[in-house]
Automatic annotation (TrEMBL):
<feature type="domain" description="EamA">
    <location>
        <begin position="180"/>
        <end position="289"/>
    </location>
</feature>
<feature type="transmembrane region" description="Helical">
    <location>
        <begin position="151"/>
        <end position="170"/>
    </location>
</feature>
<keyword id="KW-0472">Membrane</keyword>
<dbReference type="InterPro" id="IPR037185">
    <property type="entry name" value="EmrE-like"/>
</dbReference>
<feature type="transmembrane region" description="Helical">
    <location>
        <begin position="66"/>
        <end position="88"/>
    </location>
</feature>
<feature type="transmembrane region" description="Helical">
    <location>
        <begin position="126"/>
        <end position="145"/>
    </location>
</feature>
<feature type="domain" description="EamA">
    <location>
        <begin position="10"/>
        <end position="139"/>
    </location>
</feature>
<keyword id="KW-1133">Transmembrane helix</keyword>
<feature type="transmembrane region" description="Helical">
    <location>
        <begin position="274"/>
        <end position="292"/>
    </location>
</feature>
<comment type="similarity">
    <text>Belongs to the EamA transporter family.</text>
</comment>
<dbReference type="Pfam" id="PF00892">
    <property type="entry name" value="EamA"/>
</dbReference>
<feature type="transmembrane region" description="Helical">
    <location>
        <begin position="34"/>
        <end position="54"/>
    </location>
</feature>
<dbReference type="GO" id="GO:0016020">
    <property type="term" value="C:membrane"/>
</dbReference>
<keyword id="KW-0812">Transmembrane</keyword>
<feature type="transmembrane region" description="Helical">
    <location>
        <begin position="218"/>
        <end position="240"/>
    </location>
</feature>
<feature type="transmembrane region" description="Helical">
    <location>
        <begin position="182"/>
        <end position="206"/>
    </location>
</feature>
<feature type="transmembrane region" description="Helical">
    <location>
        <begin position="252"/>
        <end position="268"/>
    </location>
</feature>
Length: 299
């Protein structure tokens, strides 16, 4: 396989995926966090519905299978992005949010042994603790402990980490067991998006009254989040998984913090601080330790 067959999709995925943080921040002045999520996932659900219907792939899979996939979707999309948007809405820089949520692969790796019935090496646990230490360094120098809004804004992304880790572990358990509730990617995504849209409608309507300013910048932002990020980045991810192993594709998520920081710098003038970079280096040290392989055992 040629180098460009891997390099170009990888670059496209990293740029599209992490532009989601920037796009969300652009959209928040025009709609509340829950309303923005509702519109985004309602649109995604409609697009997937039509696509599946036209291709003859739309079907009801039963409550057991649908329920599991809807739960995964609510955690991996609704809670994950909901916590991200709440942090951005309270003025937390996109790069810092990306740094916090970058803990998710570390947490998933540490806890996956319990789910898959496999032992988790000590290096993974130490790597996870080092990663948390790196985030603590960055957040500790930015958070205003005397401001409840600041405390909430900087800590709520940890909810994203917990939610998507739980979703990943549920999916991992289904894969290990070769469970029948594992659906084709497009059908699973439809159920995930539908569940997210339905659940997000509740706070969007009752807490935010679905107030939305349908200005041109908001419409363009929504188009980008739906087509560029949710469909484009997700599609490139599956192209990469088809050409590489899943572990190497997952490693691309670790490029999120520096790429997002650069994007936020260019888009909003969020200049990274010295301790942001120190924290990021510590997180990457934890990643390196967690991913390092032990010495080969010779027989």
């Amino acid at each position: 396989m040629r180098f460009r067959d891997i390099f170009l999709p990888a670059v496209g995925f990293v740029l599209l995926w992490n532009s989601g943080f920037i796009g969300a921040e652009y959209g928040l002045p025009y709609a509340g966090p829950f309303s923005l999520l509702f519109w985004r996932y309602a649109a995604l659900t409609g697009i997937l519905f039509v696509s599946l219907l036209v291709r003859g792939r739309l079907r009801w899979v039963g409550w057991r299978s649908a329920g599991v996939n809807m739960t995964v979707g609510f955690l991996a999309h609704g809670v994950w992005l909901g916590c991200v948007l709440l942090a951005l809405d309270r003025g937390v820089p996109a790069g810092i949010v990306a740094l916090v949520v970058a803990l998710q692969p570390l947490a998933t790796g540490a806890f996956s042994g319990v789910t898959a019935g496999e032992p988790t090496g000590l290096k993974r646990w130490i790597g996870l603790f080092i990663g948390f230490a790196g985030v603590a360094v960055t957040v500790g120098f930015r958070i205003d402990l005397g401001d409840a809004g600041s405390v909430f804004g900087y800590l709520v992304p940890l909810g994203s980490v917990a939610a998507i880790t739980a979703a990943s572990l549920i999916q991992r358990r289904l894969d290990v067991r070769h469970d029948a509730k594992v659906l084709p990617v497009d059908l699973a995504l439809f159920y995930q998006c539908a569940a997210t849209a339905v659940v997000m409608a509740i706070p969007a309507i009752f807490a935010e009254r679905l107030v939305t300013e349908w200005a041109v910048p908001f419409v363009l932002t929504m188009l980008w989040l739906v087509v560029g990020v949710s469909l484009g980045a997700y599609g490139l991810m599956w192209v990469l998984i088809d050409r590489l192993d899943a572990t190497r594709v997952a490693s691309l998520f670790y490029l999120g913090p520096p790429v997002t920081m650069l994007m936020a710098w260019g888009a909003f003038g969020d200049v990274p601080r010295g301790m942001d970079l120190v924290g990021m280096v510590i997180v990457f040290a934890g990643v390196g330790l967690s991913c390092a392989r032990g010495p080969a055992v010779r027989g």
